[in-house]
Each structure stands twice: as structure tokens, then as C-alpha cells.
Design goal:
The chain is of the alpha/beta class. It has five domains: about 35 residues, no CATH class; about 160 residues, Rossmann fold, CATH 3.40.50.300; about 35 residues, no CATH class; about 100 residues, Orthogonal Bundle (Helicase, Ruva Protein, domain 3), CATH 1.10.8; about 100 residues, Orthogonal Bundle (Helicase, Ruva Protein, domain 3). Helices cover about 55% and strands about 10% of the residues. It contains 25 helices and 13 strands. The strands form five sheets. Strands 4-5-8-3-9 form a five-stranded parallel beta sheet, sandwiched between helices. The protein has a two-stranded antiparallel ribbon with strand order 1-2. Strands 6-7 form a two-stranded antiparallel ribbon. Helix 3 packs across helix 4, helix 17 runs parallel beside helix 19 and helix 23 packs parallel to helix 25. The longest helix has 23 residues.
Length: about 525
């Protein structure tokens, strides 16, 4: 081959190899004569001297938040749970003040220190996970959330608990030093309690024992035996001369938060209290709700429930969350930042649509969500049921705003039908605009101007409404040969425009065939075609 062709071939080959192996960050050179690729072992150029390294530990080194600062921040996102906010704020401040001291004065690192690991107790959907996410975001540390039910003692069936720490490194984008000061949140911890009446559940007890090591202090390998990708990455790092980086991470300063509903525990405490009727100022146990029983739970109750004494001992900070009432759910929609109702507003804004919801509608939604018995998650269930058809129908119309009333919530299908009926003229106008956009797009792509006759335009609108299609859907279904035929006709006629008539809309196949044939005849006779 010529020198130019040979150079082009080699360059293309080099580009392909770099594309395939770029993610591995490996450099290759290609032999100009043989075309064989070999790894480039020359040292990589050093980074620019003026490039400043970002100190990702700065939020921890300079941690100076007070418990009230954290509480006030959580107030913006979490409704109620005052006790939970207070307890968590104090635990976080105590933990990260100690971490900051250890960073500033490494000589105190070996001193004995009991971590303020926390146990959240309460029903689903009351803000336990969300509270921790918000706190981690405020502090600026990596956060990992997992369900305790996915772990097993061996890790061969399910996951190894050490995967939690490895996931924390991933959340820190590979920064091991930052990850060792992160937060691990383990939900559904009550599901790993040993519940066997004959003997202790092997898997649940084994997982608890393995978690004990993590919550206290241990070194975790960054590459598990089953993590083939991680091991390959380590080998590649060594081949690049990076030494593989750190291979272990200490859990000494990782804050652990565990959470669970503990429904059966409340029943156990109720039985104990009912037997004694002491401790509630003479009130009957039947008059108390679940959260009040959980607040009376002792370490012995947790052990009876199925937890190892050592495991419970590693969770000295315990807080009970209250179930949310309909009033609480209403407040979430009205005043909580980033609430689910705002998410639906953003969803509709993506289509250029706004809605206004009155107080009665908000109240009705809150009451229905409360009946779901899933806390704040019930709001998503009710709102999704309410807005599902609205999201499907309204974006294809010219409707840009609508009202949500109590009747909308109670009779959503009828209310939507009324909106669509009242806005029929607006919908027709929106379809006319879509036809014009279709014509503009066609001209931009093919350089051919489409001119729709008035009756043809209305025919397209009628058929879109009749078949419940968008303009794009109508053209793709009924006028799929339009593009090819128009190109033939305009090429034969020498024109850069094409007239769309009512006849073409009503019978596209026959009309296009006729006009193509006429354009060929006109071209042969020297005429201007159709």
C-alpha cells in the first residue's frame, strides 16, 4: 500500500486500540511495519506543578458544627422526630470531634475510645434513612446504605459484611483516606435477629458476629476473594508502576447506624409491661401506641429478641422514631424541602406544565397516604395513582396548567376527562403547531419545504385525535413512504417544495404513487412535474 494509506491504517489502528483500552489508562505503540501493538513502558509525564490537589478531608479536619446546627439543618427536611434529631446530632458531633482530634494529634490515636454507633428503632417511612443521608451530606463524608437481609455469614450465598466497607470506598470515589471517616447505614437490622426457638439461627448470629468486628475496629481488605474485577484493577495498577495503592482500610473511625422496625419487639415489651403494669403511671398498656413500648425496651429485651449481647453493646445510642400521622404527612408536602410533591411538580415542569393544589386536596392526599401504613412512602403511592394518567395525557396537549382539588383526588378519571374536554380547542392548536414543527424539521433535514393545505392540516389534526396519536406517530404510521417519494418527485421536478393536500392525507399510498409517476412523465417530457 502507499505510504499515505499505510500511515492512515496505522493511525486508525492506534485510535481503535486507545478507545478499547482507554478506560484501563494503558498506553500502547504500534509498529509501523508489522502493525503489532505493544504496551508503552515509558514513564508518564508528571502532573503540572501548579495543579493543586483537592483536600477532601477538609470538612473533617475543620469540623466545628454544634448539635443545634445539625438539628436545624435536619429540620428543613425531616418532619417531627425531634428526639431522633437531637440524639443523632449529639452522636455525630461527639464522633467527628474525636476524629478531628485524632487527625490533629496523632499521638492520641491509640487511646481507647468507644464509638457512638446508633440504633434507630421505628416503623417504615418515618425518615430514618433520609435523616442519615441529610446528615452525611451536611458533614461532607461518604455514605453507604444497605439492607442487613442481603448478608450471610460466609458471603458465598449473598454478600459479605465487609462489602459494606468496600462500597464506602466506592462512594468516596476510591479515596481510602476519606472513606475511613464515612458513615454506614444498615437497615432492617431486626431481620437478622436469631428467632429459632430450638437453637440460634446460624446465619443471623454469624452476621451479627461479623458485624461486631466492623463496628469496633478491624482492617478490611479492599479486594475480596470473589472480587475478580478489583483484583484485576490492582494488578493493572502495579503494572503501571503505581504500587497498587492501599490494600486495606481501617474501620476504627467509620460511624455505624443500624435501623429496624422491631414490630415484634414492641409486642414483647407490651407483654412484659402488661404483666407488671408498672412504669406507666397507672395507664393501661392497651392505651399506649407502639413507639411508647419501644421506648421502654431494655438491653435485655433486645437480647431476648435474638441479638447477641456483644452486638447490642456496640450500639450504645438508641432512639425511637414515631409513626407519622396524617397531619405530619400534610406538613411534609407543605414545608419539607425536596418532598415528593415537589418532585411531581418538577416532573410536570419537564413538559412545560404547572399545577396548583389547594389545601383540601393536600389534606385528602395526606389522609389516603396515612391509610397506606407506610409512612411518607404512602405519599408516593397516592400521588402516583393520582397523576399517572395526567402524565400520560397532558404532555401531548396544549394544556400548560391545571388545578388539583379534593374532587380531583376522589374522582381522578372524571376530573381528567373534564380537563381534556375543556381544553379540546387548545389540544387542536397544539397539534397544528406539531404539524408545523414536523414541516420545519423536514426542511432542515432534507432541504425541502412542505406546504400543508388548510384542509390537509385539519385532516391530520382530526386523524391524530381520532387515533389518539401524536403528529410524529401519525406520520410514521401513515406516511412512512413520504420521505422517499418526496425526494423522487422534487428531484424530477427540480423544485425544492412539496404541497401536502387533503387527498394525500386521506389516501397516501395511491396519491404518492400517482404523483411519483406523474413526476417521471413530466421529467421525460420536459415539464415541471407535480
Amino acid at each position: 500500500m502507499s505510504d499515505k494509506k499505510g500511515d492512515d491504517f496505522v493511525k486508525n489502528l492506534e485510535d481503535q486500540i486507545r478507545d478499547m483500552l482507554g478506560k484501563a489508562n494503558l498506553s500502547f505503540v504500534v509498529d509501523q511495519e508489522t502493525g503489532q501493538a505493544t504496551r508503552d513502558t515509558s514513564p508518564s509525564p508528571p502532573p503540572p506543578e501548579d495543579e493543586e490537589e483537592v483536600d477532601r478531608l477538609k470538612p473533617i479536619r475543620e469540623f466545628n458544627l454544634k448539635p443545634r446546627d445539625i438539628r436545624d439543618y435536619l429540620e428543613r427536611y425531616i418532619i417531627r422526630q425531634d428526639e431522633g434529631k437531637k440524639v443523632l446530632s449529639v452522636a455525630i458531633c461527639d464522633h467527628y470531634n474525636h476524629v478531628r482530634r485524632c487527625i490533629d494529634r496523632p499521638e492520641i490515636e491509640p487511646e481507647e475510645h468507644t464509638k457512638h454507633n446508633v440504633m434507630f428503632v421505628g416503623p417504615t417511612g418515618v425518615g430514618k434513612t433520609y435523616m442519615m443521608r441529610c446528615a452525611a451530606r451536611l458533614i461532607g463524608v461518604p455514605f453507604v446504605k444497605a439492607d442487613a437481609t442481603k448478608f450471610t455469614e460466609t458471603g458465598y450465598v449473598g454478600h459479605d459484611v465487609e462489602d459494606l466497607v468496600r462500597d464506602l470506598v466506592k462512594a468516596a470515589e476510591g479515596d481510602v483516606e476519606l472513606a475511613q471517616y464515612g458513615i454506614i447505614f444498615l437497615d432492617e437490622i431486626d431481620k437478622i435477629a436469631s428467632q429459632s426457638t430450638v437453637g440460634k439461627d446460624v446465619s443471623g448470629r454469624g452476621v451479627q458476629i461479623n458485624l461486631l468486628k466492623l463496628m469496633e475496629e478491624t482492617d478490611v481488605s479492599l479486594f475480596s476473594q470473589t472480587d475478580l474485577i478489583g483484583q484485576m484493577q490492582a494488578v493493572m495498577n502495579m503494572q503501571r508502576g503505581k504500587g497498587g495503592g492501599p490494600r486495606i482500610i481501617s474501620t476504627k473511625h467509620i460511624l455505624f447506624i443500624v435501623s429496624g422496625a422491631f414490630g415484634r419487639l414492641a409486642e414483647d415489651v407490651k407483654k412484659r409491661i402488661s404483666a407488671s403494669q408498672i412504669g406507666f403511671a397507672g395507664r393501661s398498656a392497651d392505651d399506649l401506641d407502639e413507639s411508647e413500648f419501644l421506648r421502654q425496651a431494655t438491653t435485655k429485651d433486645f437480647i431476648t429478641y435474638g441479638f447477641e449481647p456483644e452486638f447490642v453493646g456496640r450500639l450504645p445510642v438508641r432512639v425511637v422514631f414515631d409513626a407519622l400521622s396524617a397531619n405530619d404527612l400534610e406538613q411534609i408536602m407543605v414545608s419539607s424541602e425536596g418532598n415528593v410533591l415537589d418532585q411531581y411538580r418538577h416532573d410536570f415542569e419537564g413538559y412545560g406544565i404547572e399545577f396548583h393544589m389547594d389545601d383540601e386536596a393536600i389534606r385528602e392526599i395526606a389522609e389516603r397516604a396515612h391509610e397506606e401504613k407506610t409512612g411518607a412512602r404512602g405519599l408516593m403511592t397516592v400521588l402516583e395513582r393520582l397523576f399517572r394518567d395526567y402524565k400520560y395525557e397532558l404532555p401531548s396537549t396544549a394544556i400548560r396548567n391545571f388545578d388539583v382539588t379534593k374532587r380531583t383526588v376522589e374522582e381522578r378519571e372524571a376530573a381528567l376527562a373534564e380537563i381534556l374536554e375543556q381544553k379540546d380547542s387548545a389540544k387542536r392548536e397544539a397539534l397544528r403547531d406539531d404539524v408545523k414543527r414536523f414541516a420545519d424539521d423536514f426542511q432542515e433535514r432534507h432541504g425541502i419545504k412542505l406546504t400543508f393545505a388548510k384542509d390537509a392540516l385539519e385532516a391530520v389534526v382530526d386523524k391524530c385525535l381520532e387515533e389518539d396519536r401524536t403528529v410524529r406517530g401519525f406520520t410514521e404510521h401513515h406516511l412512512k413512504d413520504l420521505e422517499y417519494a418526496i425526494k423522487l418527485i422534487t428531484r424530477n421536478s427540480g423544485k425544492s417544495s412539496f404541497s401536502v393536500t387533503r387527498r394525500l392525507i386521506d389516501n397516501p399510498a395511491d396519491e404518492l404513487a400517482r404523483r411519483v409517476a406523474d413526476s417521471f412523465k413530466a421529467a421525460r417530457s420536459g415539464g415541471d412535474g407535480v
